[in-house]
Amino acid sequence: MLASFISFTVFIGALYSVTYSATAQSEPINEQVSKKKILWLVEDKIENIDLLAKNSAESSTASYIENLIIQQLKKSPQYDVQIVRVTAPRINKMLITKDDVCVANRAKTPERREYSLFSDPQSFYLTHKLYRFNQKSALPSQLFNTKGEIKNLASVFKSLPTQTMGVAQDVSFGNFLDQQIKQINPENIYYRGGNQRVVALASMLYKSRVDFVLALPVDITPNEAQKTLLEQYTIAGAPPYLIAHFNCSNSQLGQGIINDINKILAKVYQSKDYYQAHKKWFSDKQLAGLQTFLAEKFAEKKYLDPTQ
């Protein structure tokens, strides 16, 4: 009887070791069955429709990489990823009040770091520019530095106090530009909300309903006729790129998710698709500048074109 019991025990042990990894063996079975829920917030806007179908580098950079991360987390035996569509104002509230929330494509700011955690870079954008359309006169020369850059945003509206700049509501433009926007008289700013705010702001600019728009170059897509009338200005001192990150709750679970996202990103950075996803939105000169920036700022991560 003892021999039979030992044989049975050995058989069960062998079966267990085949079925579960070494990590799983150290934890009770019922904990393995119960996956950790992740509420993956997706802003309810046009660009995010069919997000999980955007599995090609020909999609927008951010959407492609977000989908890739979601799919990898879904394959993990420890996570149950649930997509939740919310408005932009709800994102911050949920990150603050819940411990199982993540969202993509976020600028890392000091304010957000007080209540949430950020991953390594998700994607890179050419930084926001100031756009003007179909104007009859040039901007005053005193607004520019020797490089032809706008010295600062506030000076534009001190010089042109009756004019208005359109900006997207409930978003961060990165810490540098967020601080500059705070220095502008609120009467000179028109905030546009809603799930089509980016498209709406461009339309308002072309219809002269606002005098300026502060936007990412990737979001301004004029037609051939509009291109000849569109002016674009760089703001002096602004970082060359807006870096988007994955952003999760400041909790033990949130830190674990961020750690796993970073592991996935470390592999993605080396892929040709990561490079190609950015290449679509950068000119050759801009892409070369991005590669130099990555080499200088993130050399240890080796965010470089794997084809070179």
Can you walk me through this structure?
With 308 residues, this protein is of the alpha/beta class. The strands form 2 sheets. Strands 2-1-3-10-4 form a 5-stranded mixed sheet, with helices on both faces. It has a 5-stranded mixed sheet with strand order 7-6-8-5-9, with helices on one face. The chain folds into 2 domains: 35-125 and 242-301, Periplasmic binding protein-like II (D-Maltodextrin-Binding Protein, domain 2, 3-Layer(aba) Sandwich); 129-233, Periplasmic binding protein-like II (D-Maltodextrin-Binding Protein, domain 2, 3-Layer(aba) Sandwich), CATH 3.40.190. It has helices at residues 2-19, 22-25, 29-33, 61-75, 88-97, 110-113, 153-159, 175-182, 197-206, 224-227, 252-268, 272-279, 284-297, and strands at residues 36-43, 79-86, 101-107, 116-126, 129-133, 165-168, 189-192, 212-215, 230-233, 241-249. This is Solute-binding protein family 3/N-terminal domain-containing protein. InterPro entries: Solute-binding_3/MltF_N. Residues 69-283 form the Solute-binding protein family 3/N-terminal domain. Pfam families: SBP_bac_3.
